[in-house]
Amino acid sequence: MNTLATIRDGDQVLFYLDTRRHWLLRVEAGKSFHLHRGILKFDEVIGQPFGSLTKTSLGVHVSALKPLPRDQAVKMGRQTNIVYPKDAGLILLLAGIGPGSVVVEAGTGSGALTSILGHHVAPSGRVISYEVREDFAKEAQKNIAKIGLGDIVTIKQQDVLAGIDETEVDAVVLDMAVPWDVVPLAYEALYGGGVLVSFSPTIEQTQRTVDAIYASYFTEIMTRELIEREILVRPGKTRPATRMIGHTGYLTSARKVYPLKKSNLAAET
Q1: CA–CA separation, 17 vs 9, rounded Å?
Q2: Cα–Cα distance, 268 to 265 (Å, whole number)
Q3: Which of 47, 93, 104, 238 has the highest CB neighbour number within 10 Å of its CB?
Q4: Would you give the distance in Å from CA 19 to the centre of its chain?
């Protein structure tokens, strides 16, 4: 059996009962977890493969799953709103973020998006996240350490408006109140062709950010909104869920280009 697929003492496990009831827990030998459907004894899952079914003391079956990055992001302790997985997935795609990417993030918050970025740049990439608030930075640092990304993610407790220290990065991701003020700094930090992605909850913030992007040298400037609706598939009565994740924010993306040199302009005339 692949030992990485086996639940070990100290591992994080997602115990899944149903779509509304699931718990991300660190299993420790000799300990247990009390839920409304009985007691989960961790000794009964340690040594079993991820994906195993286990029973509570009341005989209720619970799945023991290996946590995905989205599970860790949604379940981590937080003092702020988080970027939802639906938006985080598009951010990764728009910015071309993958193994080896170097990403600057501004607005760490609780570290939910930071952790998703960290998972996807691993094992050789880096995420440098700027957070001006000390309490948020400390909370995010704890969350990042819990999921084992301390070697990938660096959290800087400093104001990104004072400057971005890094250069030649692949992507800059903004999730903050005044992203338009960071656009010129992001331009300087990106390599040619690098991607800026900004997440804003209001259209006014988005408009100011897009204005700042157009005032600089970017191309492929686009703003999108994602709406997520679950479909309840049941024999003979399939329908959309009553509730849905509607508006969460607007995603604006753009790619850095260099201005024409004077010599090129002269040649064109």
Answers
A1: 21
A2: 5
A3: 104
A4: 21
Architecture of the structural domain at 70-265: 3-Layer(aba) Sandwich (3.40)
Tokens encoding 238: 């399939």
| Three-class DSSP category at 246 | coil
Which amino acid does the sequence have at 45? Answer: V
pLDDT tens-digit series, residues 138-176: 999 998 998 889 999 999 999 999 999 999 999 999 999
**pLDDT of residue 218 exceeding 90:** yes
Match domain 3-67 to its CATH number in 3.10.330.20, 3.40.50.10860, 3.40.50.2000, 3.10.350.10: 3.10.330.20
Q: Which of 196, 116, 188 is nearest to 153 (CA)?
A: 116
255 closest CA partner among 193, 188, 169, 173:
193
Instruction: Annotate 58-100 with DSSP letters as a single string.
Output: T--EEEEEPPPHHHHHHHS--SS----HHHHHHHHHHHT--TT
Determine the 3-state secondary structure of 210 from DSSP.
Answer: helix
Tokens of 72: 């860790």
